[in-house]
Amino acid sequence: MSAHRGSQATRRFKLALVGNPNVGKSVIYNEITGGDAWVGNWPGTTVEKKVGRAVIGGVEFEVVDLPGIYSLSAYTLDEEVAVRFLVEEKPDLVVVILNAVNLERSLYLLLSVLEVGVRVVAALNMIDLAEGQGYKVRSDVLEELLGIRVIPTVAVKGVGIEELRKAILDTLSEPPSTYKVNYGVDVERAIEGLASKIKGYEPAGAKLNVRWLASRLLEEDKYAVELVERLNPELLKVAEEHRRRIEKTLGRPLDEYVVERRYEEASKIASKALIKAGVKKLSLTSLIDYAVTHKVFGIPIMLTAVYLMFRLAFDVATPLCTLVDYAFSSYLPSLISSLPMPEFASSLIGDGVVAGVGSVLIFLPNIALLFLALALLEDVGYLARAAFVVDKVMHKLKLTGKSIIPLLLGFGCNIPGVMATRAIEDEQDRKTTALATPMISCAARLPVYLVFAGALFTAYRGSVVFSMYLWSVIFAALTAIILRKALFKGVSTGFIIELPPYMAPQAKSVCFKTWLRCKRFLLKAGTVIVAVVVVVWLLSVTGPSGYLGVGALEDPELIEQSWIGVVGHWLEPIFTPMGWDWRASSALLVGFLAKEAVVGAMGVLYGVGEEGLSGAIASSFTPLTAYAYMLFVLLYVPCVATLATIRGEMGFKYALLALAYELALAYSVAALCVGVGHLLGVA
Amino acid sequence: MSKSWLRLALIASSTIYLAYSAVALYNWLMDLAGLEGLTSILNTVTLSGDPGSFIALLTVGLLFTGSVYYVDDYKSTSCLLVGSAIAVALSAINLLVGVALTCDEAILATLGEATSISLASELTRLEVLLGVIGIPLLLYAIRRARSLTRLEV
């Protein structure tokens, strides 16, 4: 043991976290690594494996959080990722997280992992919820039956995490699991025969678990077939002979039989470990879900939740916005002007950086409260219900139910939304969703809506901003319909989502998520936005005739001679039908880099900073042209980073298609909005 | 609370919420048309006039109606629990908004950008009062939910 510990100190061990979707893997990952993996009370939060580092008792671990799976059958991409990792990367230890509320299903996965022949520790999570439902789960019985350490945990409260760390360390010095599910005489004989043949072809040092491989081969598992084909294709014929013979005896498909036996084993173990302490006719989750997922009440409840979220974010944040506004419009400019520096530098910092960044940061309180509300809804478990409620409508609009999660992620940022489409198996569905996701209004567009809604729709600014989100859903659905009819023809696949139990939100988790999202916004404000406003400032004080001086920022005639003025005037005729001046047109160009930058650029271009931006907008736009501008910002190219993600996920052709489609759509919708408004006599 | 009193309270609440949602929609449409809507009752209670309020009030009204309509205790309690929770949340958010806007005026006055501080109209909105009335309904719904989901040992 001491010698082993000695070697432990010199190498890094590989530790994998495996479990069903929404079992608390990411919470445990964060607890172990101190990492910042996204945790959500809905299935499918982890769309690809995440890697972190942990030091437990002086021993270093590389911790891998695998996507949530139900088995190791490689039916889905997530399962394939997990099984490939377990077999090819050969982790030193696997922590299987069991759901105490649904023990049988978790045990099925645990048995599958044990069969691979790796060291396993089980974390029996959500024991508090199981107890609330009248069940007591005996971890000691599970340990005895499975021959592994089983640690009861309530991960969201940090209960059992220290014990889990200790178990990980202790198990590291023990041999791998030898647990076997007994499949009956005939199958066992076939497995043994096949295993001995595989062993003969196994390359030196491969350390394959031949029993596991043989059993998987008999099940015709896609990954096992691929592995054995590499060793010797002849083995596939031998496996086929065995399978035919056994299926003849059983009178049914072998894979069905094997799954059933494994479930029987899981069920047998679960029945021994579970003690029913009482009977509960109805759970609180089912009671609430009747109304929340109701076909009539479901959608109004969802819209109400969104409305309350927006009121909290936009109206409650008002005094905080006023304070930030004061800091950037009065305090900092007077501080900068009092510093002894050249006019050029003073203007660059004051009129460029402070005015530009300030006009974006003024919305930080709104965005922070919006993120807080979103984190609360997510942790309570409502977002999964929202997905469920909307699914029926989405399906009618030819958008697959599985698209809901990427689309919901898109409300935060379109990039993870586009990336999350990887979890959609059907290629047509995946591409449709990836191209529809940029229609979803991400947090970066919010500052633009807020400044316009605040300037021209004072009384109804919450509703106007809310309408942008409604439009974004409508246009995402319309885009999906168009793509489905024109490009990606075929039938959409169904939607299965596991509705998690409602949980009281944990302050730590909610604050952590809010902080993570705000940090991303602040980083962007401190990097991209600063860079953009500096470039816009430079283009505003210089022109074809050379340096115009900082006076250009306050002189409407002089700024028209600047580079930005030249480009703006070149763009102006394109946007004349919408009634936007050259400054508004130029700001749209900047939005290609980051949508928040539109506001910052406007601050510089109107020469008012964030202090007088509302007034400048109110005098340059009418409510109608402002609404059309907001629609344009909603629909035209999300940002360069999202386009790059689409290119990475689908290729250059589709990125170009997205660019052209979104520009054409944004222009047509904005022009239509103004046209219809004029016809109706709206100014 | 006896069953008949509860039914009566729910029928009254659902009617008020549904009627108020119609008023909110009417006010919004009037405002879009540039006309005066029903903005207050006796110049003391403020009435909403935006589509968001309309949806929220309609939702509460529908859920209260559902809690009267369904005979099944489980369905009725579910509607009552969610409906009263939304009614109280709506009231709480309006109170928060009212406090926030009043604080904003105080900040502006401190910074010399406003001359007086007045209480925000959100504090006297009808949904604030209705939400306060909804608290006993929420408490009753929680008690019913507890008894329906009780663990029987």
Task: Give the tags.
heterodimer; A: 683 residues; alpha/beta; Rossmann fold; Helix Hairpins; 3 domains; six-stranded mixed sheet; two-stranded antiparallel ribbon; B: 153 residues; mainly alpha; 4 helices; 3 strands; globular
Task: Characterise the protein shown here.
- By secondary structure, chain A is α/β, with parallel strands linked by helices.
- Chain A contains 32 helices and eleven strands.
- Chain A has a six-stranded mixed β-sheet with strand order 2-3-1-4-5-7, sandwiched between helices. In chain A, strands 6-8 form a two-stranded antiparallel ribbon.
- The radius of gyration of chain A is 29 Å and the shape is elongated.
- The termini of chain A are far apart.
- The model of chain A is unreliable at 1-6 (pLDDT under 50).
- By secondary structure, chain B is mainly α.
- Chain B has one domain.
- Chain B has helices spanning 3-32, 51-69, 73-110, 126-148; strands at 40-41, 45-46, 151-152.
- In chain B, strand 1 and strand 2 form a beta hairpin.
- In chain B, helix 1 (3-32) runs antiparallel to helix 2 (51-69) and helix 2 packs antiparallel against helix 3.
- Chain B is globular.
- The mean pLDDT of chain B is 88.
- The chains are: A alpha/beta (683), B mainly alpha (153).
- Chains A and B meet through strand 9, helix 13, helix 14, helix 15 and helix 23 of A and helix 2, helix 3 and strand 3 of B.
- Strand 9 of chain A pairs antiparallel with strand 3 (151-152) of chain B.
